[in-house]
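User: Structure with fructose -6-phosphate, tokens only please.
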Amino acid sequence: MRKVTISLLKADVGGFPGHATVHPGICKKAEEILTDAAESDIITDFHVMGVGDDLELIMGHYKGENDEEIHGLAWRVFTECTNVAKILKLYGAGQDLLKDAFAGTVRGLGPGASEIVFTERTGEPLVAFMMDKTEPGAFNMPIYKMFADPFNTAGLIIDPSMHLGFRFEVWDIKEHKRVFMECPEEMYDMLALIGSKSRYVIKRVYPREGHPKLPADEPVASISTEKLFEVAGEYVGKDDPVGLVRAQSGLPALGEVLEPWTLPHIVSGWMRGSHNGPIMPVSFANAKCTRFDGPPRVVAAGFQIANGKLHGPVDLFDDPAYDAARDEANVIANYMRRHGPFEPHRLPSEEMEYTTLPKVLKKLEGRFELIQ
Ligand code: F6R
Ligand code: MG
Ligand code: MG
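Assistant:
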């Protein structure tokens, strides 16, 4: 059977206003190009949306991961949308298109990518999570909880097909290395890594060898791990990660995939990519970054995949069940903001994406005295 590919490719091509949202004219341009691509059978289906200032392209096709035609299509959308952004004088037009020359893949050029290739089951629920004003490590805790924490996912204990646990692919994004770890056996070792979320990030999750319903070589979750800072060599905005998670029938149920987001955990990003703050689960309508350019937000778009078609999305956080998490996020945001320029609201200087510290130190160079 042909395997389907879901590609979620995203970029900030200009904000409206500031870094708050995506202008409707940008989404319209993206929709026009992808409608043509669907009519020419390059993709089977698509959905375009804005989350904060990021343009999100969710596409179904049969061409696999890192396909030149699909990435070329996304690159064309991002460049043509940048032209629209320039005409409208949107803020930071083309912000995430860091390199000019497309050479077969958008990876390494600035946009973020989460792609997943799998054999479609009889019923195939999939959730696209999209974040703004934070970085890939923001996914570590929720993905860990979905696939490894029995206090989150009851199925790990009571569903015989999940009892074996899952296999995690963890990337060291500083040294460009990866390691595969089996949970529950290696849970403590894995937590030792992924707790350092600015360096070790979960890239993919797989069923383990022997899963009664699913092949061990087809991922069940995939997260974008691009670090814009690494691409550009200087601060150019946060990475604003996205992730795709499959659910049900030997995988965490939809509700187990959504359960971790009841905790507005602390992520780095927010104002100037240099602050810690709570991540707030919001509806599509509230996917706009306002207060102190945030707080960082996440939306959940639910789909049923059928022969490459994306039925949906359902706006999964548009639900009073997430009101308490949003209220808690606001309480935490107030508390954190009261720290102003002090850590741990402001990130430690090594992790700050913009800083005047070297200049301040230079200015004070001759004035530092040795203490006896
Ligand atoms: C964070 C972000 C914003 C900007 C801030 C300053 O990822 O994009 O918080 O860093 O609005 O933006 P500039 O330097 O463009 O004025
Ligand atoms: Mg921006
Ligand atoms: Mg953004």
